[in-house]
Amino acid sequence: MAPLVPVEKVEDVWFQALEEVDSDDRSVVDFSDYVTETWVENNRQMWNHYETEGPRTTNHLEGWHHKLNNQMHRAHLNIFTIIKLLQTFQSANEIKIIQLAAGGKRRKKEKKYRDLETRLRQLKERYELDMINVMDYTDAVSHILKHR
Q1: Neighbours of 44 (CB within 10 A)
Q2: What pLDDT is recorded for position 2?
Q3: Which residues contact 46 (CB under 8 A, 6 or more apart)?
Q4: Angle, nearest 10°, between helix axes 79-101 and 59-71?
Q5: C-alpha Rg value of the chain to the nearest Å
Q6: Can you tell me the distance from the alpha carbon of 85 to that of 71, in angstroms, rounded to the nearest whole number?
Q7: CA distances (Å), 125 to each of 50, 112, 135, in order?
Q8: CB neighbours of residue 42 within 10 Å
Q9: What is the pLDDT of residue 40?
Q10: Angle at CA 134, nearest 5°, toward 38 and 148?
Q11: I want to staple 109 with a disulfide (CB 3.0 to 4.6 A). Which of 23, 113, 118, 138 is the partner?
Q12: What is the DSSP string of 101-136?
């Protein structure tokens, strides 16, 4: 679960995890070399979410895109139809903003996701307080996400 480990610890976690891998299998070695060179040694900040507050995925954007596609009843709309559709979306969002500013409530996340975030936050706090080491933290995060 290297994406949820501090950036400066990713390499340590990755190399420790590699010690448990069967190094006799050439495809495993090739894959681990690729991950090490491309992602662990070079692009950690791009995919690491340890410090991320808010969404860690693009699901909200995919949902918006799906909704937009459902409103278009043909594959190739003219530009004026697209503009009118986007204006409708904008009006709906402005109404939501006004409602929220007036004290309206946001729709709650599903309980399983709220519980997952709580468990991950508590685990992160334990790690940051040096109550557990980085490998125990990583194992626990992996276990939580695997059994959700």
Answers
A1: 20
A2: 63
A3: none
A4: 130
A5: 22
A6: 8
A7: 12, 20, 15
A8: 10
A9: 86
A10: 85
A11: 113
A12: HTTPPPPPPPHHHHHHHHHHHHHHHHHHTTSS-HHH
Report mean pLDDT in 10-residue bins for the chain, 148 residues: 80 86 81 88 82 82 90 85 92 94 90 90 94 92 84
Query: If we measure between CA atoms, which residue out of 131, 141, 113, 111 comes closest to residue 50?
Result: 141
Tell the residue number behind the tokens 């004026």, with chain if given: 80
- Other CB atoms within a 10 A radius of the CB of residue 18 amount to 16
Nearby residues of 85 by Cβ (< 8 Å), 6 or more positions away: 68, 71, 72, 77
Rounded Cα–Cα distance for residues 18 and 39 (Å): 14
Q: Which two tokens stand for residue 93?
A: 């969002």
DSSP label at residue 19 = T
**Which pLDDT score, from 0 to 100, does residue 132 have?**
94
pLDDT digits (tens, 9 = 90+) for 102-142: 999 888 889 998 998 899 999 999 999 999 999 999 999 98
